[in-house]
């Protein structure tokens, strides 16, 4: 096979039967099955963003709370392909004082603990369009003081509940019902779509046939069916595309959402089914087949159509169809053919809703040319397309010798060799990639915490800690340390209060029988400096524990010293001898390391640093004010920090010029070995050199 500059390729007849098998092998061996299904950068960002939502209240009502749920691709995929499967993060959230129930369904007398003591209950009524409903305020639930039950007050006459579409500056809906948060281009963060919904704890009658309909191949199984039905559904404020401009329907239509059900079902798929889902989505998106509308108001194909195709296929096809003589390309070709038939017939049946008229396609979809193209796709075409448009992009992430090997492939044998090299590179870098997820999490947790310093409450603390523990318990250790430092910052600037005391009280690690604990704080009258010292010391202990836990698992891929925070705290306390000993050991361990963690210089860590480093960071920010958005500007390596502490301690302890000259030599080695480190590292190296030179001249 020869890959030309324009991305086209030529495959000989002898090669055709091999290429699809190679593509299959490539996807099966590069789509990682995470040790934990939610251990990725996207999952961590989603968890942190949900914590921000929990810390937010609707305008003018501090008692009402948001209850968030991560949906969409981030919640559905447990495989990690080589190219990303998610372009954004979807978070649904509902108020804890609102509820929806099907028409004619009795109001509940008990609710989950997250709900408010005063709850408005809206009744769901059908519109003329299947899947779209109206909401009518029908009941008010008031929780009894002495029991968990709710009393019900019926409302006789109430207007339909309306929603306010999210608009851009031109007055057009930005992204359906979503409020989108975007980040700067230099950030690794995905945009986040927040969608307000109303929770329905009951499985809707519009889909009452779904749990009991006949299934030949046993998917979903009974346990999965029960879990889906128990989760109920949601109602989202968005009108049908044909009604958005019509009054009053455009303001009063809501859509039944089965996102909770989809998460459960897609997570129950076999890995091969998740991989096929990823391949189909990528092909439709990159092949620009979704851009099928050529007039305003026309419908467009979306991931939801592919999701619906996959859900039906998983139910209607046997397990052996997916796994026997496994060929991912052939599976994709057959599914695309089925999809082309749907497009030709303008019929995409909703997976959950019973009504035969609930069609996800209609005459507004201009898909004739797309249907013809999909109908003509065969195994040869699709396998070649994935080689050029997917594997070719993956090769760009590999070392130059591997990417050149792929580009120079002129035969099936050459291509097989190139793909094997890419697969091997992917597998070799698995541990390094996972470490980058941890480093990303450290930055994200530390960056988000100070943005809402007044929202560090018992509720938000418990939510963040629990969600991070679900991803990996090490993150909760790091989060606890960051929280303690954040509390110390608040105490220094605004003083101690009951809410902060309540947060400290619910931290088990601070309430053991060993040493100083929160109950001791209550009984004594510590001054501000003593309290801050207690918080800082506890935080440093947990940061050190975190370093040890991470070093244990990633030490073969990254050189991680575990005493950098202890050395920093010793310097702050004036224990220069101990700081020097630790820093010297750290320099020797890091000086010739291939990879090492960074040290974040953010607001809660500033209290552990000396004035020179803080001033240097401020100067960097003054010179480049847009750096406020660039997290890398607030980071130095562990080696740079250790060299700086080593120099400072030598100066404080009045070491000889000869001793300082050895440190200066280490700085020069670091400058030569790491020429591409961050600007702040280079500035710190210059500062060290300047300090030593001043002493040498004396």
Short key terms for the protein model shown above:
698 residues; alpha+beta; ten-stranded mixed beta sheet; two-stranded antiparallel ribbon; 27 helices; 16 strands; 50% helix; flat; disordered N terminus
Describe the structure.
The structure is a single chain. By secondary structure, this protein is of the alpha+beta class. It folds into four domains: 189 residues, no CATH class; 237 residues, no CATH class; 129 residues, no CATH class; 138 residues, no CATH class. Helices cover 50% and strands 12% of the residues. The protein is built from 27 helices and 16 strands. The strands form four sheets. Strands 4, 6, 7, 8, 9, 10, 11, 12, 13 and 14 form a ten-stranded mixed sheet that branches. A two-stranded antiparallel sheet has the order 1-2. Strand 1 and strand 2 form a beta hairpin. Helix 2 packs parallel to helix 15 and helix 26 packs antiparallel against helix 27. The radius of gyration is 29 Å and the shape is flat. The chain starts with a strand and ends with a helix. The N terminus is likely disordered.
């Amino acid at each position: 096979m020869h890959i030309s500059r324009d991305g086209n390729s030529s495959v000989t007849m002898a090669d055709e039967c091999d290429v699809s098998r190679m593509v299959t092998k490539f996807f099966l061996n590069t789509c990682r099955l995470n040790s934990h299904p939610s251990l990725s950068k996207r999952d961590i960002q989603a968890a942190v963003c949900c914590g921000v939502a929990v810390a937010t209240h609707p305008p003018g009502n501090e008692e009402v709370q948001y209850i968030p749920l991560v949906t969409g691709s981030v919640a559905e995929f447990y495989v990690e392909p080589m190219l990303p499967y998610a372009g954004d993060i979807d978070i649904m959230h509902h108020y804890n004082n609102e509820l929806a129930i099907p028409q004619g369904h009795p109001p509940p007398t008990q609710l989950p603990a997250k709900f408010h003591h005063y709850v408005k209950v809206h009744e769901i009524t059908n519109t003329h369009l299947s899947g779209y409903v109206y909401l009518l305020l029908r009941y008010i639930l008031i929780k009894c003081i002495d029991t968990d039950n709710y009393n019900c007050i019926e409302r006789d006459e109430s207007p339909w509940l309306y929603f306010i579409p999210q608009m851009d500056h031109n007055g057009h809906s930005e992204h359906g019902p979503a409020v989108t948060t975007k980040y700067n281009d230099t950030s690794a963060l995905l945009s986040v779509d927040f969608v307000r919904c109303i929770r329905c704890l009951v499985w809707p009658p519009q889909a009452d046939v779904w749990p009991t309909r006949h299934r030949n191949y046993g998917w979903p199984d009974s346990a999965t069916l029960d879990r889906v039905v128990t989760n109920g559904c949601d109602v989202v404020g968005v009108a049908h595309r044909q009604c958005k401009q019509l009054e009053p329907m455009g303001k009063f239509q809501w859509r039944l959402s089965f996102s909770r059900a989809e998460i459960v079902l897609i997570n129950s798929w076999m890995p091969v089914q998740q991989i096929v889902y990823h391949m189909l989505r990528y092909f439709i998106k990159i092949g620009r087949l979704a851009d099928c509308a050529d007039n305003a108001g026309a419908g467009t194909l979306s991931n939801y159509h592919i999701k619906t195709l996959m859900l039906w296929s998983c139910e209607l096809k046997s397990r052996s169809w997916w796994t026997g003589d496994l060929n991912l390309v052939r599976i994709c070709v057959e599914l695309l053919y089925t999809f082309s038939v749907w497009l030709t017939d303008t019929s995409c049946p909703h997976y959950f809703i019973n009504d035969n008229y609930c069609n996800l396609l209609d005459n507004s979809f201009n898909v004739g040319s797309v249907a013809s193209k999909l109908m003509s796709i065969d195994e040869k075409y699709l396998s070649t397309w994935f080689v050029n448009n997917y594997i070719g992009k993956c090769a760009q992430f590999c070392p130059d010798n591997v990417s050149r090997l792929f580009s120079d492939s002129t035969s099936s044998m050459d291509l097989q060799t190139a793909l094997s090299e890419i697969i091997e590179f992917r597998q070799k870098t698995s541990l390094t990639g996972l470490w980058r997820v941890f480093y990303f999490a450290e930055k994200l947790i530390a960056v988000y915490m100070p943005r809402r310093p007044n929202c560090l409450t018992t509720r938000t603390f418990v939510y963040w800690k629990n969600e991070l523990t679900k991803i990996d318990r090490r993150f909760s250790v790091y989060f606890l340390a960051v929280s303690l430092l954040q509390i110390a910052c608040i105490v220094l600037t605004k003083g101690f209060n009951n809410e902060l005391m309540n947060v400290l009280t619910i931290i088990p690690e601070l309430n053991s029988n060993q040493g100083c604990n929160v109950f001791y704080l209550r009984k004594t009258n510590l001054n501000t400096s003593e309290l801050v010292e207690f918080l800082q010391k506890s935080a440093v202990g947990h940061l050190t524990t975190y370093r040890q836990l991470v070093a244990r698992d990633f030490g073969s891929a990254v050189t991680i010293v575990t005493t950098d925070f202890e050395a920093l705290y010793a310097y702050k306390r004036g224990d220069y001898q101990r700081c020097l000993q630790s820093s010297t050991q750290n320099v020797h361990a890091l000086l010739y390391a291939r990879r090492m963690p960074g040290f974040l210089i953010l607001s809660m860590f500033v209290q552990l640093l000396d004035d020179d480093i803080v001033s240097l960071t401020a100067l960097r920010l003054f010179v480049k004010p847009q750096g406020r958005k660039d997290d890398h500007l607030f980071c130095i390596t562990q080696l740079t920090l250790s060299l700086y502490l080593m120099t400072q301690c030598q100066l404080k302890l009045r070491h000889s010029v000869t001793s300082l000259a050895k440190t200066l030599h280490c700085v020069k080695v670091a400058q030569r070995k790491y020429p591409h480190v961050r600007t702040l590292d280079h500035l710190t190296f210059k500062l060290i050199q300047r300090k030593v030179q001043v002493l040498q001249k004396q």
